[in-house]
Amino acid sequence: MKKLLFIMALFVAAGSAFAQGDIETAAAAAAEQTNLWSLIKTGGWAMWPLGMFSFFMVALIIQNFISLRPKTLLHSEQMPELIKMMIEKKSKTALIYCRKHPSMFANTFGAGLERCLDGESEIDFVKVKESVEEASVEQMSKLMKPIDYLSIIGASSPMLGLLGTVSGMIKAFHTMGALGMGKPELLAANIGEALITTATGLIIAIPAMFFFFFFKKGFQKTLATLGRNMGFLFDALQTGKEPISFMDLEALEALDGE
């Protein structure tokens, strides 16, 4: 009797092992069949606008990395030459220089120089400051657009994914109402559509919002540096002296001796 029970236990264990092997084989086959295209088809109509969002997100990230570099916007290497022009009161020469080297820095500074050359005998630095502020706002709004687009994508993608989820669940309940639970593969396809669109929306939204805050923070820092450089230049124009920040050690020691 004990031998019979032992043999039966062996058969049960062997059957379980074979069944487990079949399940693992089927799961592996299903995993091999699952690819990007099958996921897109399973996700339904919402995957197409989400795919467009992902494409535009990548394009905007690349564009912002290229266009928002501090070196591209500020051109700090131009500061010593422009400061020298300001000390020598060569506003017209500096304006021509800015026109030949357009950038956010040059365009903003050039707007202030234009106010300096409006024909008045004395420079009204209040008007110059207003002109610089207006130009900086114009430049800022132009460069902030690609950053704001990332925010729009980050906010819209989860909502679009949620809409796809609702659409998939509606189809799932419609399938249950029409066919009952007799065809689980149809129900699984609808539920798959519901889950995949939500996941895709979040996958797009998370990096979009991350890079939105990343670029926004970096651009704010660049604007602060721009304002500081503008102050140095117009101080040099007003006082005729080199700003302390641009003086070398010997000049600082000579200044201390005075």
UniProtKB/TrEMBL annotation:
Record's protein name: Biopolymer transport protein ExbB
Signal peptide: 1-19
Compartment list: Cell membrane; Membrane
InterPro entries: ExbB/TolQ_transport (IPR050790), MotA_ExbB_proton_chnl (IPR002898)
GO biological process, one term: protein import
Highest taxon listed in the record's lineage: Bacteria
Species of provenance: Pontiella sulfatireligans
Similarity-based family: Belongs to the exbB/tolQ family.
Segments crossing the lipid bilayer: 43-62, 149-174, 194-215
Keywords, sorted A to Z: Cell membrane, Membrane, Protein transport, Signal, Transmembrane, Transmembrane helix, Transport
Chief location category: membrane
GO cellular component, one term: plasma membrane
Gene: exbB_6
Topology in membrane: Multi-pass membrane protein
UniProt domain MotA/TolQ/ExbB proton channel: residue ranges: 106-223
Keyword Plastid included in the entry's annotation: no
Alphabetical list of Pfam families matching this protein: MotA_ExbB
Keyword ATP-binding on entry: no
